[in-house]
Amino acid sequence: MLRLAPVLTLAMMLGPVAAGLLGTLLPAAGYVPVLGGTAVSLEPLRMFLTQPGIGMSAALSLSTGLVATFGAFAAVVVFTAAFEGTRFFRALRRLLSPLMAVPHAAAAFGLAFLIAPSGFAMRLLSPWATGFQRPPDLLIVGDPLGLTMTLGLMAKEIPFLFLMLVAALPQADALRSRRVAASLGYAPVAAWLTTVLPRVYPQIRLPVFAVLAYATSVVDVALILGPTTPPPLAVRLAAWMNDPDLSQRFMASAGAMTQLGLSLFAILLWVCGERLAAKLGRLWIESGRRSAAEELSAALSGAAMVMLAGAMLAGLALLALWSIAGPWRFPDALPHHLTLRAWTMHAHAAEDAIITTVAVALPVVVVAITLALACLENETRDGLTVRHRSLPLLYLPLIVPQIAFVFGLQVLFLTAGLHDTLFAVALGHMVFVLPYVFLALSDPWRAIDPRYGHIAGALGASPTRTFWRVRLPLARKAVATAAALGFAVSVAQYLPTLLIGGGRISTVTTEAVALAAGGNRQLVGIYALLQMLLPFAAFLLAAAVPGIAHRHRAENEATA
Amino acid sequence: MTIIRLLSRPVRGALLAAALTLPLAPLASRADETVDPADWTDVLAKAKGQTVYFHAWGGEPRINAYIAWAGEQLQQRHGITVEQVKVDDTANVVARIVAEKAAGQESGGAVDLVWINGENFVSLKKAGLLMSPGWATKLPNWPLVDVENKPAVVTDFTEPTDGQESPWGLAKLVFMHDTATLTHPPKTLAELAEYAKANPGRFTYPQPPNFHGSTFLKQVLATTIANRSKLSHPVDPASFEADVAPLFAYLDTLHPYMWRQGRAFPQNQPALRQLLADGEIDIAFTFNPAGASAAIAAGELPDTVRTFVLDGGTIGNAHFVAIPFNANAKAGALVLADFLLSPEAQARKQDPAIWGDPTVLAVERLEAADRERFTALDLGIATLSPEELGPVIEEPHASWMVELERAWNARYASQ
Question: Does B51 touch chain A (CB under 8 A)?
Fold first, then answer.
C-alpha cells in the first residue's frame, strides 16, 4: 500500500494539471474545433504579443512579484536573525500565526479600507489635521507601479514565510549555533546569518518559490489593490478567459503559457540571486567580519514586521467594523451607529456557504495529509529521497497560472460527468492543497534525524510502530501546521470552486467575490470575515493540538 | 497528527482505499426532454419537481432577494425549485456553456436559465448554444409585452432576439448628483467637460470593458459621431478611426480633469456609486432609472441625491433571460421565464423598495387590477417620471462596443 502512495499522490496532483495544461496548450496553438480553430498555428501567440501594453503588464507582474517576495523574505530572515529567542520574537510569532490563515482577498480588502483616500487612516486625520471635508484625489490604491499591491502581497506573504521558517528552525539547531558563534565574537544578526541561514534556507526554499510563483501570477489581490491601466498580466488573462468574444480564448491561452514562462523566469532570477548570495556569503564568512549592521537591520526588520502585521490587523478590524456599520460617511472616524442588519440579512446564505466550505475542505485535508505522510514514510523506509526527481512535478500546480489550467480541468470533469459535485470540487482543490501540504511537511520531515528511526529499529520496533510512535510524534507540529495550511488553501480557492462547481457549490470565498462585485462594504466585511475566521479556527486547532497530544503523551509515558 | 492516530488501523486502510477508488465514482447521468412552449399544460406537467438553476449576476442583494421571492412563488404554485447561481460576470456563464459544448455534453447542462443581454447573447446565439428559436414569443404572458413602444425587447444591441431570449426589464442610462454639493448638474456632454475642468477630480466612469464604462463611451459616441445611423450597422473598419475621432478628442480633454487624473478608474457601477456616497465625486450614473431611489432606500446614498438625464437623450436597452441548448430543466426554465413576465412579478420588480427595474409590459393594455399594481407604485424621491426620462438612444450594433473597448484600451490603459 505504502509503495503506491507516491504514484497515487503524483497522479492526483499531476493528472488534472497535465490535462488542464493540455486544455491550455491546444487553444494556445489555435486548436479547438468547437470554437472554430482546426489548424495548429502561432496566430494566438502573435495576437497576444501585439496586445497594447502587454510588455508593461508582464513587467508589472514580474516586478511586483519579485519585489514582494524579496521584501517579505528579507524582512522575515533579518527579523528572525535579529530577534530569535527574544520575547518580542515570540510575541510576534503568536501574532503572525493566525494572520497566515487570512485569505489574500480579505487581507487586500482590509488594507484598502485602511489606506485608501477615503479609508480609515485618512478619516482619523480629517478634517482636523488635513482640512479635508471630502476624500483627497490621491492615487494610492491602484497606483500605476503597483506599489500598494506589492505592499499588500508582502503583508500577506510575511506570515506564511515566517511560519515556514519557524517550523524549520528546530532542525537547524539555531540557538546553540548562535551561542557558539557568539562565543567566537559574532554579533547576533551576523551569527545567525552565517551559521543558521545556510542550513535553514534549503528548508524554506520551496515555500519561497511557491510565494514567488503565486505573487507573479496573482489575480484577486491585483484586482483589489493593483493598477488597471494596464493591469498585471494574470488579471488581463483572467479577463480574456471570461470575455464573451470566444475567440479571445485562443489569445488568453497563449498568454497563459507566457505567464507560465514568466513565473519560471522569476524563479530563475531568484536562483541566480541565491548563487550570488552564496558567493557573497562565503566571502563574508572568510573575511571574518563579526557584525552585520546589527542595530540598523534589527530596527528596520522589526519596524517592517510590526508595521505590516499592524496594517493587516487594523485592516481586519476594519472589515469587522464595516460589517456592523450603519451609515459611515467621510470624514467621520467612526460609523454613525452600529447595526447587525447586514448580518441578519445574510445569516442564512452565510450558514449554507460555511457548511459547504467545510464539507469540501475537511476531506481534502485528511486525504492530502494521509497521502503526503504515506509518501514521506515510504521515502524514509526506502532510505532514498525522491526529492530531485519529484520536485519540479510537485511545483506544477503552484506555478501554472490557475485560470489557464482550471479551464482545462473543467472540461475534464465534464467529460467524466463529475462536474457540479462536491466531490469534483474537492478533487479540484486537492490539486492545490496537496502541493502546499507536501511543501509544508516534506522538509521538516526529511530533516528528522534518521538515527531516531535506526534506534527504534534496533530496539525491535517494526517500521509501522516506528512511524506511529517515533517519526509522527516528532513531526506533529509540522503535520498540524500543514493540515491547517491545507484547510486555508482549500477555503481560499475561488476559480476552481466556481468553474468546476458550475457555480452551484457556493463557498464563503465564491460568495465573497460575487458580492464584492457589488461594492457594498458591509457585505465585503461580512464575507471577508467569514473567509478569514474559518482558516483561523483551523490554525488555532493546529497550534493547540500538538501541545495537547504532547501532554497526553507525556502523561502516558509517566504512567507507563 | 492526533486525528489520524485516533483512527483504527482498518479505517486508516480504508482512507487510502477510498482515495484509490475516487476516480472510479459513477458517472452522473441526466434525462433529456423535449418541450414545446405552445403546449403549456405539458410544460407545466414536465416542470413539476424540477430544479431550475438560474445563473444571474449576484452583486446586488436586492435583486438576489427578488429572485428568491420568485423562487418561492414557483415552488408554491408549480412545485418548481429555483436555485440562483450568483455569478460575478455573465461571461463566466458563457464560458461554462462553451466548455460543456467542448466536452460534448448535449443535455443535462449546468445552466437552465441565464440573465443576459448584448454581446453575451450574441456570442451564444452565433455559436448555436441557445434553445431553439421562438420559445419566448410562445410564452402565455408574451402578448402583454410592449413590442411597439419598447422595441429593445425584441432587438438586443441591434441583434434580433428571434425569440431566443425573453425580455425581463428595461435599462436607461441616467446620471446622479448629490444636491448637497452640486445643485445644477451639467445637461450636455460639453457642459460636463466644462464642469470637470472647473472642478478637477470630481467625475469619472467605470473602466471599460466594464458594461457601464462602455455605455458611457457609447453615449459620447452617439452624441459626437457625425452620422448616427452608422451605429445601427456593424463597424466599418475603413472609417472607424474617423468615426471615433470626436469621441477620443472629447475624452482627451476630459481625462486630465477626472478623478485620479484618469490614471485609475472604478471597476464597476457600484464602485462608482460608492465614490459618490463617499463624496469623492460629484456625478455618477447608472443603468437603472430607479437606482438612486433604491440606493437611498438602502442607505447606500444620502437622500440628497437626485437623478438627471442629458439633453438629446441617453442610451437605453433591455435585459433578458435565455435558455441554453443543453439546459437540464427546460420546462422549469420556461415556467420561470413566463412568471418573470407576469404583471405581478413585473410590478414587484418595478417597486424601488424591492428593485426598481422598469417593466417591459404594456401597462395600459393590462387588466384594471394588474394596471393598478403599477400605478400604485411610489417610484421614489430620486426617480424621474417616464416623461422626464427623455428620448432613448438605441444601443449601437454589438461590434461597436467590441471595437470601442479595444480602442479605449489601447489609448488609455496601456502606457
Answer: no
Task: Say which CATH topology domain A70-229+284-336 has.
Answer: MetI-like fold (1.10.3720)
Closest CA to B216 of B259, B269, B281: B269
Does residue B349 lie within any of the structural domains? yes
Single out the residue of B321, B315, B278, B126 nearest to residue A330, CA to CA. Answer: B278
d(C-alpha B212, C-alpha B215), whole Å: 5
- How far apart are alpha carbons A66 and A73 in whole angstroms? 10
Query: How far is it, in rounded angstroms, from Cα B50 to Cα B81?
Result: 6
* Per-residue pLDDT tens over the stretch A49-68: 998 899 999 999 999 999 99
Of A135, A502, A516, the CB nearest to B278: A135
Instruction: Tell me the sheet residues that pair with A4.
Output: none
**Concatenated DSSP letters for A136-181?**
-----TT-TT-HHHHHHHHHHHHHHHHHHHHHHHHHHTHHHHHHHH
Suggest the residue from B27, B204, B212, B278 to mutate for an interface test with chain A (most A CBs closer than 10 A): B278
* Min Cα–Cα distance to chain A from B144, Å: 31
Is B247 part of a structural domain of the chain? yes
Cα distance between residue B350 and residue B290, in whole Å: 8
Residues B397 and B261 in one domain: yes
Given a contact cutoff of 8 angstroms between Cβ atoms, the answer to whether A428 and A409 are in contact is yes
**pTM over 0.90, yes/no:** no
ipTM of the complex: 0.78
3-state secondary structure of A377: helix
Q: What is the mean pLDDT of residues A22-42?
A: 76
A504–chain B nearest CA distance, Å: 6
Q: What CATH topology corresponds to A1-44+343-548?
A: MetI-like fold (1.10.3720)
Who among B16, B86, B260 is closest to A370 (CB)?
B16
The pLDDT tens digits of the residues spanning A160-182 come to 899 889 878 887 888 888 889 99
* CA pair distance B345, B330, nearest whole angstrom: 20
Q: Which residues on adjacent β-strands are paired with residue B305?
A: B178
| Residue B130 per-residue DSSP state | B
Residues 285-304 of B with CB under 8 A from A: 299-300, 302
Residue type, B350: Q
Q: Look at residue B222 and tell me if it is in a domain.
A: yes
Residue A423: closest C-alpha in chain B: B22
Whether B265 and B404 map to the same domain: the answer is yes
Half-sphere exposure of B303 (CA within 13 A, CB side): 5
pLDDT tens, residue by residue, B123-136 = 899 989 999 889 99
Task: With beta carbons less than 8 A apart as the criterion, state whether A375 and A7 touch.
Answer: no
Residue-number span of the structural domain to which B191 is assigned: 174-316+392-412
My answer on whether B87 and B191 are in the same domain is no
Domain check: are B125 and B227 in the same one?
no
Chain B interface includes A408 (CB < 8 A) = no
Instruction: Looking at the structure, tell me whether residues B63 and B149 fall in a common domain.
Output: yes
A interface test, pick of B2, B12, B114, B404 with most A CB neighbours within 10 Å = B2
Alpha carbon distance B145, B166 (integer Å)? 10
Same domain, yes or no: B312 and B325: no
DSSP A2: G
Over residues B37-58, the pLDDT tens digits come to 999 999 999 999 999 999 998 8
**Beta bridge pairs of residue B54:** B84, B113
A362 lies within 8 A of chain B by CB:
no
CATH code of the domain in which B156 resides: 3.40.190.10
Same-domain pairing of B84 and B129 = yes
Cell, residue A169 = 528552525
Q: Which amino acid is at A462?
A: S
A100 with A159: CB under 8 angstroms? yes
In chain B, residues 357-376 whose CB comes closer than 8 Å to chain A: none
A408 vs A334, which has greater pLDDT? A334
